[in-house]
Amino acid sequence: MSANRPAAVVVLAAGEGTRMKSKTPKVLHEIAGRSLVGHVVCAARELEPEQLVVVVGHARDQVEEHLAQHYAGTRTAFQSEQNGTGHAVRMGLEELGGELRGTVIVVCGDTPLLSGDTLTALAATHAADGNAVTVLTADVPDSTGYGRIVRDAATGAVTAIVEHKDATDAQRAIREINSGVFAFDGVLLADALKKVRTDNSQGEEYLTDVLGILREAGHRVGASVAADHREILGINNRVQLAEARRLLNERLLERAMLAGVTVVDPSSVLVDVTVTFGQDVVVHPGTQLLGVTHVAEDAEVGPNTRLKDTVVGAGARVDNTVADSAEIGAAANVGPYAYLRPGTKLGAKGKIGTYVETKNAVIGEGTKVPHLSYVGDATIGDHSNIGAASVFVNYDGEQKHHTTIGSHCRTGSDNMFVAPVTIGDGAYTAAGSVITKDVPPGSLAVARGQQRNIEGWVARKRPGSAAAQAATAATEGVAEGN
Ligand code: UD1
Ligand code: CA
Q1: pLDDT at position 2, please?
Q2: 123-136 burial, b if ≥16 CB within 10 A, otherwise e?
């Protein structure tokens, strides 16, 4: 439980984000498998606030639906017109019943790198210093677009925040910027918001003006400088979106490496926030691990592999593979060049080899599908071997049907299993068979045309051809015993 548990966190997410130039509202853009607003909500939840409210406006329905789906129970407040960050906070507080005793934390929905730890530190500074407001600031190499922190030359105390658009040239030279994250005294905040005016270049109610208002009223105004300025990166356009993805990715991989994962080339590996690893995993270059993917101990993934919502068992090897919602058993072997679609479950020590596609397929322990095959809507037992170039014919043009193959089966190369069909334990099938009928356990099924050799056909039909000459040489050679 956090020591300085705030009364509320208000997340601002009503803006359109015009600079994204997108049909999708800015806060729903994703990095590392989570929406921008989702990252902020997750960080805010670490503070264990008594209340959490997200202020929505632009594309309200879409944002609310997203929150309900992924962050159940999150309360929202509606800001019908985007009249500025101050106005947005006012709407948030109204939803929570107006004046709140205790600390109110305000965060923008477009700062996805902000960590729960930084928010906790801000709340602690705010409480320890007894401030009316504490703003999280950062010294950045390029302060373009951000609100600038103006400090008293003599005392160094923060006197105001001036928005980029409203700043003088001298103020624009300031490198210390407003992160958009604040801790407020709830009562003083509500009161000061009533006094915020709109006489600025954007004609908006700026939350940042609250700071000057409180200071002029004689209240303590403080600032907490973020240890790492990269954490407060605000996303306004897609260049910043990509930059945030890169920084978050570095953070995630660093955490994994420090926990015992070998990442051969971190710059070519992408991971989502929900990916987890066991110890001594090796991740090869060109690998993307997405969604709720888990790679267990001693497994090796990549190169050039994309796994989404997939579990890789301990010691498994997955090479040049695309998998979605699949389970790969311990010590199993997948790829190179395999495509595992949803519902694929490969047993321990099993194999899905080269140019093999699987879907809704449960493949038993030690069973191998080594080459050039499609396995769809199938259950295969343990220790069976599926011959090269086999197709599980699961679709009749209207419906999908199931194929069941038992344990210890040996199916021939180039088989078609026309579902629904069942092959019993220990059965064999001949190469080139089109299996349309069930095969009892222990039988050999042969389902192909008989071979017929028409002797002398080439000599008769293609006289004088190279083929005919070769045939003649071969038969004479045989006759002469050469
Ligand atoms: C804001 C700050 C700026 C700070 C920067 C940090 C103000 C006036 N400016 O500028 O000092 O350096 O963030 O990234 O506060 N929003 C609403 N309703 C509105 C307007 C905005 O909910 O009416 C939300 C947006 O959805 C967004 C956040 O508030 O999540 C910030 O808005 P944005 O327009 O991005 O502000 P900046 O110009 O970046
Ligand atoms: Ca912004």
Answers
A1: 59
A2: bbbbbeeebbbbbb
